[in-house]
Amino acid sequence: MLKHFIAPFGLIFALMVFLIPEGAASAEGDGLIVKQSDFDVIKTLDRLGIALERAGIKVFSRIDHAKGAKSVGMELPPTAVIIFGTPKIGTPLMMSNPAIGLDLPLKAVAWKGNDGTVKLAYTDPEWLAKRYGIKDKDKVFKKMTGALAKFTEMAVKRSGLPKM
């Protein structure tokens, strides 16, 4: 009986996965902002890292998911994450709600899609404010949102990153 009840949901989920276009996520529903890059995955994250560090934001780590997949005998198109932040901004947010530490430091992921395009995605800081119910740091979240929009644009567009 349960098997007959669950089967239609599996079919619905499978249809959703195939019918929702890649990169269809938006900040309105799930807080995800996705941009298309003019560069490959590594160069996109390199450029983002440079833009962040020039602004005094620490890059803590990078994770190469494709390399991890290869280590267990699986293939994954180029996919990598950069983890970054600054305690100067993150600490006051965690003082308002320590649970935001689940999403701090911030992260961005770049991947090569099935269509050959490279995408860069990150969580909208203003969405994090709503998720964690932080109402006393609106200026901080607005500043973070603007800065991330600027830095990610520098990372994904050929004209985005000025020379040193």
How would you characterize the overall build of this protein?
The chain is 46% helix and 20% strand. It has 164 residues and is α+β, with helices and mostly antiparallel strands. It has a single domain (32-156), classed as 2-Layer Sandwich (TATA-Binding Protein), CATH 3.30.310. The protein has a five-stranded antiparallel sheet. Helix 2 crosses helix 6 (138-156) and helix 5 packs antiparallel against helix 6 (138-156). The longest helix has 19 residues, at 138-156. Residues 1-27 have low confidence and may be disordered.
Entry summary:
The chain is of the alpha+beta class.
Q: What is the terminal separation in angstroms? A: 66 Å
- CATH fold description: TATA-Binding Protein
CATH 2nd-level architecture = 2-Layer Sandwich
Helix percent reads: 40-55%
| Overall pLDDT confidence | 86
Inertia-based shape? globular
Largest sheet: 5 strands, antiparallel
Major sheet: arrangement of strands: 1-5-4-3-2
Give the structural class.
alpha+beta
Q: Element order, helices and strands?
A: HEHEHEHEEHH
Quick one: how many beta strands?
5
- What's the helix count? 6
Radius of gyration in whole Å, from Cα? 18 Å
CATH class: Alpha Beta
Residue runs with pLDDT of under 50 for 5 or more positions = 1-27
The fraction of residues assigned to DSSP E strands is: 15-25%
CATH superfamily grouping = TT1751-like domain
Domains counted in the coordinates: how many? 1
